[in-house]
């Protein structure tokens, strides 16, 4: 069976985003948060080819509503995500939401909106991916929910060497509860330290 | 001039201790917290010789009151720390406190109680260490205070692969505010991942 992977970029103090994301500022209203966290993949891509390839190596994705849109309530059909007309996933993406919406085909990526909960979304992603990996694409709330449910086989944390101190932001591991993982890798670079953890075998 | 180092063992969610430390439970009232965090150095010492040697490589230490004693208020002279009659520091240790106390000589370690604040304690430690390293011995509150003050040259974080989820515990980087560091090392083992960061050059 395919494995479930998850990549998340966080600060030294565990933040993946600041508070109050909007359409204009997906990483919250503390100016520069998104840039500081993701400079490693945009400005230093050549130093991190394997890790970047890993993020996009899945054949299906599960995504939280907040990762697709900062809005709440029924969908604004004009909103088509943050990624332009050619999203980088190039695979089926199952977006968890309480509000139904027709599938959205954008380039090689199809966003399918799932209103039946995490298990249904994960099942559909697994069926779509076959033997290939399924990735939990974020946001952090969904990542934490999946960690709590014990369904992440490989967690790849990209730690940016900055203490962000953005209270009210979203933090990896918040609400996960006690969880033991198995370390499986660590690579440091000037821009970011890549840490790999695996689900502990029962 | 000597460098200022700091070693701290933390969980994946950044906790160095749980809430409500006591004489009997220095790492707080969530049973097992201290054991989970420090098993790597006590039960697997052979896998971590360099890191353990590094912790004790300083020629002087600065320590917070809470690391020497969980009590508050004036000293109980009967309390002589958690380390038995031969503390592992084997060097001068300057304990920051609001309450004066005569120096305490225990084996090769002398605890000197400093009531004039962090700068005074650090100055005395630097004078004692000469060209050799000074270490910030903890607890976490003092570590965070020193990070905020920008006086830690090398921060060595030992990350245990467990989400502890001990709300009210003490967390590395709490209250430090925005801080950029330079990664300088990463080594993973089954028990713990060792990360080294340096103070960013001005």
UniProtKB/TrEMBL annotation, chains A, B:
GO terms for biological process: riboflavin biosynthetic process. Residues 4-182 form the Bacterial bifunctional deaminase-reductase C-terminal domain. It holds the Pfam family RibD_C. GO terms for molecular function: 5-amino-6-(5-phosphoribosylamino)uracil reductase activity. PANTHER family: BIFUNCTIONAL DEAMINASE-REDUCTASE DOMAIN PROTEIN, DIHYDROFOLATE REDUCTASE FAMILY PROTEIN (AFU_ORTHOLOGUE AFUA_8G06820). This is Dihydrofolate reductase.
């Amino acid at each position: 069976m395919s494995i479930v992977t998850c990549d998340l970029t966080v600060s030294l103090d565990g933040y993946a985003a600041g508070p109050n994301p909007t359409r204009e500022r997906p990483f919250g209203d503390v100016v520069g948060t998104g840039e500081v966290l993701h400079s490693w993949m945009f400005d230093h891509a050549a130093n991190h080819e394997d890790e970047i390839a890993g993020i996009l190596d899945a054949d299906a994705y599960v995504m939280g509503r907040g990762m697709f849109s900062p809005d709440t309530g029924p969908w604004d059909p004009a909103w088509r995500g943050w990624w332009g007309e050619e999203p980088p996933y190039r695979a089926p993406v199952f977006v968890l939401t309480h509000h139904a919406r027709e599938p959205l085909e954008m380039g090689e990526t199809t966003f399918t909106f799932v209103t039946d909960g995490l298990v249904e979304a994960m099942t559909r992603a697994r069926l779509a991916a076959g033997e290939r990996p399924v990735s939990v694409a974020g946001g952090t709330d969904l990542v934490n929910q999946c960690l709590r449910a014990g369904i992440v086989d490989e967690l790849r944390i990209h730690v940016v060497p900055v203490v962000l101190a953005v209270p009210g932001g979203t933090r990896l591991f918040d609400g996960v509860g006690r969880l033991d993982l198995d370390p499986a890798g660590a690579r440091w670079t000037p821009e970011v330290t890549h840490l790999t953890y695996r689900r502990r075998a029962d």
